[in-house]
Amino acid sequence: LANIGVWISGFATLAMMLHITADVALKYLLNQGVPATLEIVSTYYMVATVFLPIAALELSRTSIAVDVVYQYLPRPLQFFCMVMVYLTSVIVYLTLAWNSWGDALRAFQVGEVMMGGVSAVSVWPSRFVMPISLLVAGVVCLWHLILLFVSKEARDTLMMLQGPEVEVKEGV
């Protein structure tokens, strides 16, 4: 699911670029842009681009991390920190998913639309992207949390410092 989210996000980003380019080109060439561009970009493309890759970032552990203090802690405290980070992440992701799911259901029930110039744009389908993305990210963090306790190999990998090691050479 995480990889599918990345692919869909990439397609949404590409579609957004093409849509905006077409809108700008038509405004300058024909003095008439693509209808509802702002509404479609802000409610569909941007939401997909931002939220769908979150689970993949959690899965690959490539989100931003500041390890200034962590790297100097003894191993048991590092383990405690990782448990607290993943536990907090699970709670936050699932809470946000739950709250945004309720918002998505309300938008679906009323058939939420946004006025786009002269036409109405149905935006309720895009409201489900956020809760689904956050739910998957929460499940990934829960999986990492479980792995911390049940697998020594996974624990060693999960507790490594973030990012590649950089070799510093004298005189360079």
Describe the structure.
With 172 residues, the protein is mostly helical. Helices cover 67% and strands 5% of the residues. The protein contains six helices and two strands, in the order ααααββαα. It has helices at residues 2-30, 37-51, 54-60, 75-110, 129-150, 152-158, and strands at residues 113-116, 119-122. The protein has a two-stranded antiparallel sheet with strand order 1-2. A hairpin with a 2-residue loop joins strand 1 (113-116) and strand 2 (119-122). The longest helix has 36 residues, at 75-110. The N and C termini lie far apart (44 Å). Residues 162-169 have low confidence and may be disordered.
Give a quick precis of the structure:
Helix content is 67%, strand content 5%. It is mostly helical and 172 residues long.
Offer a few descriptive terms.
single chain; 172 residues; mainly alpha; two-stranded antiparallel ribbon; 6 helices; 67% helix
C-alpha geometry? elongated
- Report the uncertain regions: 162-169
Extended strand count: 2
Percent of residues in beta strands: under 5%
Major β-sheet profile: 2 strands, antiparallel
**Category by helix and strand content:** mainly alpha
Topology:
Layout: H1 2-30, H2 37-51, H3 54-60, H4 75-110, E1 113-116, E2 119-122, H5 129-150, H6 152-158
Antiparallel strand pairs: 1-2
Helix pairs in contact: 1-2, 1-3, 3-5, 4-5, 5-6
